[in-house]
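Researcher: Quick one. two chains, 615 residues in total.
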Amino acid sequence: MNYKEFEHQSYLQQSDEVKQRFTAIKQRDVLLDVKHLGKNFEGANGTIKALQDVSFQVHRREFITVIGPSGCGKSTLVRLLAGLETASGGVVELSGEPVVDPGPGRGMVFQGYTLFPWLTVKRNIMFGLQMQGLSDANAEGEALQWIDLIGLDRFAEHYPHQLSGGMKQRVAIARALATRPKILLMDEPFGALDAQTRAKMQRYLLEIWRNIDITIIFITHDLDEAIYLADRILVLDAHPGRVHDFIEVPVPRPRHPAQTADPTFVALKQHIESIIHPVETGDEDDLNLIRLTRVGDDV
Amino acid sequence: MASWLTPRHTLTERQSRSLLLLSFSVPLLLWSLISYVPFIWHPNVEVTDPGDVGYFKVGMSLEQEAFAKERDKVVASGGIAPEGIAVNPIYLPAPHKVATAFYTAFTTEPKRRSEQWLHESLWHSITIIFWGFSLSSIFGIPLGVICGTYAVASRMSEPFVEFFRYFPAPAFGALAVAVLGIHDAPKITIIFIGTFFQQVLVVANTTRKLDMSLVEAAMTLGAGRAQLLFRVVVPGILPDLYRDARILLGWAWTYLIVAELIGASSGITWFITQQARYQNFDNVFAAIMMIGFIGLSTDIVLGKLGNVMFRWQKAA
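Model:
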């Protein structure tokens, strides 16, 4: 299939059902308001603009994925939202309150799991609750409910090194959600997982999201993942990182893996692909093909 | 054979056991060869029959050349030739003699009343190490953790510590005696100085190696400053701190010998120098090896204990 076949099919064309859904979403409160956000890093070779004038709004219970070419500042953006970095300009407001430092209002899940290796699964999930001042007994009760929810009952007393990658990430999600944040920030959380586990985790995350009141900002470099999960996709440009587009995904919910073959899905994928990887014109990344030995098919 | 040269090639249980045995038996074999095979080395002659040489006595040991000269002289003048057997110098006792000394050193009564039995000397050395190392750790580990966690503390104290650690600890011997007297205090001080400054830097580096993302994860979970230090940094580096302490304890033993020589000589060092003076080199070797065994067995015990305490760590 090439792009031509889908030219008639606009990637933005929404069915009535999808239209209604977006109308409803837009009527919800604005939870996250990012205004003219900028971030510079002082390097040895002068200032590097990681993000420039990034503005967007996220409504309550929306699922946003962020995608863009490497160097577009995806990770910087999510770290700014978490309060782990200080902005060079602009503000991030969560329910009208400016974000200045990390706090329990914004849960975060990192690609590297970042479970505390010296704590059991149960105690990892209890950590945030204890930080909020809950008694050990209450924290334990809450943690056990989360462990039940993520289906790791048999592993409550296991240490992180005894778990598989998918299990670790489930614990990390439960740990972040246990403190009942308004927003969950996920920085390429499934990037280190194999394809099968990743697909399972995606279904799993959607299931959790459907059942609790949480807004999710999800960074990824995987296009299928970005479309499969999102209500809207924030597409960033690189050097400096800017908002290219904020696309409403026309694929209806509830999502199912088979939808990746839907015409709307494929059209949207090709559209974003063309933004992120435009047709190369003598870029410095091009291989010097002359130097490669020509090898026929019948080697 | 080629696979043994692969970097980080893992050995089977049996292989590593036999290699362990080999690592101890090779030096022992060399020592035995030199001691028991008469034509290897053996530069001296022990007189078994003085013959007509006036000053020779049974059991006396002298160089082969000197022995041959005297024998030739006596033979030339028609006297009875002295006889002897090839031996090693007195400072290299044979393995069995050292093995015997391992036992007899404990049962031999001190020559003078004021002198100590071997076990008393050993115990005294162990207490010196204990106090020197404990005092250093009480101050050094917290300071190191703080330096590794906060840049301000690091910049404020580490340059000086870095400078101070190049001062050789034994150089403070005379000063320590002048200030603290001749007994145990200056000895403990030397071990403290020798350990403390290294400890601060080693612990600070260990602390800095903690995965920053764990600290960030804790911050997003609402951990405050004190909680970050005591609930994340400290537990996160604990196994590495423990490993550092084991390595530094080894260094403390090397400072012991110098420490025990200053002021009133004491402990195992006193025993060694005293026995060397009496030319009981079998006892000297036994005492040196005893330090080795104490060091090695402490480290093995601490290592096993560490495996039990830090079960959450991936098996290395």
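Chain A touches chain B at residues 82-84, 101-104, 106-108, 110, 112, 114, 116-119, 127-128, 131-132, 159-161, 175-176, 179, 185 (CB under 8 Å).
Researcher: Thanks, that's what I needed.
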